[in-house]
Amino acid sequence: MALFCVYEAIQRFSLSEATVIQYLFPIFTTLLASFLISEHVGKKLIFAIVLGFGGVYIILGLPFLNPDSSFNTLSVLIAISGAFLSGLAYVLVRLASNMNESPYVIMFYFPLFTIPLSLPFAYSAWISPSFNNWIALLLIGICAQIGQTFLTFGYKLLPASKAAPTSYIQVPFSALAGALIFYENISYNFILGSIIIFFAIFLIVEKRTQSEYKLLH
Fold first, then answer.
1. Sign of the C-alpha dihedral computed for residues 33, 39, 43 and 44 taken in this order
2. pLDDT of 66
3. Are the C-beta atoms of residues 168 and 52 closer than 8 Å to each other?
4. What is the pLDDT of residue 215?
5. pTM score, whole prediction
6. Which of 18, 81, 140, 179 is deepest in the core (most CB within 10 A)?
7. What is the model's pLDDT at position 216?
8. Which residue has the higher pLDDT, 207 or 54?
9. DSSP notation for the chain
10. Cα Rg for the chain, rounded, in angstroms?
């Protein structure tokens, strides 16, 4: 349901606007982790999350500030629902991990629901891909599965409230890939936003290191 809302939001907003709304999910993850699985959330972690979101907003070119940008309430609700449900899914992954469920079993349930539910809609809207499209789709599937594997193991090893904000780092990596593969320009927004995001990640990692040091001593 989260992915459906995200893809629907991309149809309704510009890519940068939809991405900014989707990256509210670390905030939702942190709040839900605090309420549902009683994870401690300190002020420093909250500051790092807000800082990281600010970095994403800068890299994407400060969307929603354009006076020509128009959207309706339903579109906003769909986009925010995608972010909220993503956050809830990550918290549930952490909850299942706390119950000693295998990450491979957790990952299995994703396609178990996705394929049967999406197949009828996919069949009715099917367009035969070209050979190049098949290659691209295959690579998307492989990369997404590898990414999901690492993500699930990450939520097993880290508290959900600390694992979610590290996803901010995807944005500068995506922009960098765009520059290397598609020869897109590196803007000042990218440099500034990336510095802010990496600083936010540093705050999160530093907090975890300090906590582990206290436990060992």
1. negative
2. 64
3. yes
4. 43
5. 0.79
6. 18
7. 42
8. 54
9. -HHHHHHHHHHHS-HHHHHHHHTTHHHHHHHHHHHHS-----HHHHHHHHHHHHHHHHHTT-TT--TT----HHHHHHHHHHHHHHHHHHHHHHHHHHTT--HHHHHHHHHHHHHHHHHHHHHHT-----HHHHHHHHHHHHHHHHHHHHHHHHHHHS-HHHHGGGGGGHHHHHHHHHHHHS-PPPPHHHHHHHHHHHHHHHHHHHHHHHHHHHHH-
10. 18
C-alpha–C-alpha distance, residues 153 and 172, integer Å: 22
- The residues, any chain, with a CB within 8 Å of residue 27's CB and separated by 6 or more, are 49, 50, 53, 87
With beta carbons less than 8 A apart as the criterion, state whether 103 and 94 touch: no
Question: Token pair for residue 202?
Answer: 């540093």
In angstroms, rounded to a whole number, what is the distance separating the alpha carbons of residues 108 and 88? 18
Amino acid at 82: G
Q: Greatest CA separation found in the chain?
A: 61
Cβ-Cβ contacts under 8 Å for 3 (sequence gap 6 or more):
82, 114
Q: What is the pLDDT of residues 55-111, one digit of tens each?
A: 999 988 888 776 665 667 888 899 999 999 999 999 999 999 999 999 999 999 988
pLDDT digits (tens, 9 = 90+) for 8-58: 988 888 777 888 888 889 989 988 998 888 888 888 888 989 999 999 999
